[in-house]
Design a protein that fits this description.
This protein has helices spanning 16-22, 44-47, 165-168, 193-197, 204-212, 231-238, 271-277, 297-305, 336-348, 350-355, 368-376, 389-413, 451-475, 484-496, and strands at residues 66-68, 83-86, 99-103, 108-112, 123-129, 147-152, 173-176, 218-220, 244-246, 282-286, 308-312, 328-329. The protein contains 14 helices and twelve strands. The chain starts with 15 loop residues before the first helix and ends with a helix. Helix 6 (231-238) crosses helix 9 (336-348). A hairpin with a 4-residue loop joins strand 3 (99-103) and strand 4. It has two domains: 16-187 and 383-496, no CATH class; 193-373, Rossmann fold. With 500 residues, it is of the alpha/beta class. The strands form two sheets. The chain has a seven-stranded mixed sheet with strand order 1-3-4-2-5-6-7, covered by helices on one side. Strands 9-8-10-11-12 form a five-stranded parallel sheet, sandwiched between helices.
Length: 500
């Protein structure tokens, strides 16, 4: 997690590290044989090079605290369990200490944030946090007996390397905002159905009174201005046709009240801040990155308050809305002017506006996909009866790894009667974020010195170069990640010669 960033995670309004303090509920390689240049079959003596003394061996295993999850019938001692390494130690979902036994649905593991176990033979999987994953810092060599797992719930802009095929297929297991990932976090910002059903915070009559006193119909509040979605460019055009009160640093045209200055960019739900923004009929809810299934509090908060979101972000947002008449999707309008005309119509017609709030009645929530997802997700938000999604994904990886190891043992014991387990590999559908595009107008019409144009499309394509470079490092069994730039250069030369 990037320093100083506020988050809304399992405890609403708290950062991830605060969450872990307030609530502790506590490979197969990604490439086929012809892709990998690891030695084809390491004998025991050769393997010793990749099996240093365990960093855990000097510890008293009996003293390792135990995380009791759903429970299982795994009675193995700690010394017999596979180890899962959290590469981003700050995300380690246990407190205190850096090592824990976890007892999951079908099996048990040891989990640790101690990187000294990276090359240990019992360390079967490494979990990476997507925002912190850097190609030039990857743990190399990539060992054939280890899988890689990706946890990435944040914006695609944090690491575009994961939006390219060569980047995402480095991972065997994924937990991302995409519904197609192995452990989907799509509704991570929606605590519960009850959150949506909360009564409208400010009645329509009061909103109309405030409108007559001069308050704009539309709210915009952003202080992160230079983002891949280029949202300010669209809002700036929209402001030509309808009044927008903009309180953040981006396109600011109104000051916040003094007592709310500290909450201008808050993702927490401080009551004073919430009451202030709830007065507006419409909220411009534009994500900082565009990606299928990436939806944040910018969308869910106005629905919770009884305001109408004007949304751009997930291209599949309609799949997750309470009904087919609860959000205004920017991309359904041919221009900002046409959108502005529609908003003016709703502002002047109470009955048409009120239709967007009908979902506040439980019987008007008709989206079966949304209801089922909230009912069946195994992790919870502010729900002490369920694990948070860090512990949940950790247990998913643990159970998957134990199943894989059992299948390998069975195959070695009786190869004629048992099939070798097949490698599991992530695909573009586990992230699949597109090339950033201009927020308004044709990118070809932007001047060469446009700030957005100079940053985000280049970042996207440079991330592809890094993904291909890391893939090449692994293919060549390199152990020094600093060689990334050399491999990237070689790929560029080969591409220029038409050989890549």
């Amino acid at each position: 997690m990037m320093a100083g960033r506020r988050r809304l995670l399992p405890c609403v309004g708290l950062g991830l590290f605060a969450v872990l303090l307030c609530w502790v509920w506590v490979s197969f390689a990604s490439f086929s044989e012809d892709q990998l240049h690891f030695e084809s079959s390491l004998e025991a003596a050769d393997r010793a090079a990749f099996q240093p003394q365990s960093a855990l061996s000097d510890m008293e295993f009996a003293s390792i605290s135990s995380y009791r999850g759903p429970g299982n019938f795994d009675r193995r001692r700690n010394k017999e369990l596979p180890i899962i390494l959290w590469w981003s130690g700050g995300l380690f979902p246990h407190f205190p200490g850096d090592t824990e036994r976890i007892d999951c649905a079908t099996s048990s593991c040891l989990v640790t944030s101690n990187r000294k176990v990276q090359l240990y033979k019992r360390t079967t999987s490494i979990i990476f946090y997507g925002t912190d994953f850097r190609a030039y810092e990857a743990p190399l060599p990539r060992l054939r007996h280890q899988t890689w797992a990706l946890f990435h719930e944040e914006s695609p802009m944090n690491n575009y390397i994961l939006s390219h095929g060569p980047g995402i297929r480095l991972f065997n297991y994924t937990a991302t905002f995409s519904r197609e990932s192995d452990y989907p976090l799509t509704l991570q910002w929606l605590p519960s159905l009850e959150y949506l059903l909360e009564p409208v915070a400010v009645p329509l009559q009061e909103k109309n009174r405030l409108r007559h006193e001069g308050m704009a119909p539309v709210l915009y509040m952003q202080s992160h201005c230079d983002v891949p979605s280029d949202r300010d460019r669209y809002v700036q055009e929209l402001m030509k046709y309808i009044e927008v009160d903009s309180y953040g640093k981006c396109l600011n045209n109104k000051p916040l009240p003094d007592h709310l200055e500290d909450t201008a960019t808050a993702t927490g739900e401080e009551p004073g801040f919430m009451n202030f923004v709830a007065r507006y009929k419409f909220h411009l809810a534009l994500e900082n990155g565009l990606c299928p299934d990436y939806m944040t509090e910018k969308l869910w908060r106005p629905l919770h308050q009884g305001c109408v979101p004007i949304y751009r972000g997930s291209s599949a947002v309609a799949d997750w809305m309470p009904n087919d008449h609860s959000v205004i999707i920017i991309d359904e309008f041919p221009s900002p002017k046409v959108l502005a005309d529609f908003l003016k119509h709703l502002d002047e017609n109470d009955d048409d506006y009120a239709r967007y709030l009908e979902f506040k009645n439980h019987r008007s929530i008709t989206n079966a996909r949304l209801l089922e997802a909230l009912e069946t997700r195994e992790w919870g938000v502010n729900d002490m009866s369920k694990p948070n999604y860090l512990n949940g994904f950790e247990c998913y990886v643990c159970d998957q790894e134990n199943a894989r190891l059992a299948a390998e043992r069975a195959y070695r014991k009786a190869p004629k009667t048992n099939r070798a387990p097949q490698p599991k590999m992530a695909s573009n559908s586990h992230m699949g974020c597109p090339l950033p595009s201009a927020g308004y107008g044709d990118v070809r019409d932007l001047p060469a010195d446009d700030g957005w144009l100079q940053i985000w499309p280049q970042d996207y394509w440079q991330s592809l170069d890094q993904a291909e470079g890391l893939e090449s490092l692994i293919r060549h069994n390199e152990s020094d990640p600093s060689l990334l730039w050399k491999h990237m250069q070689n790929i560029a030369v080969s591409r220029a010669r038409g050989k890549h």
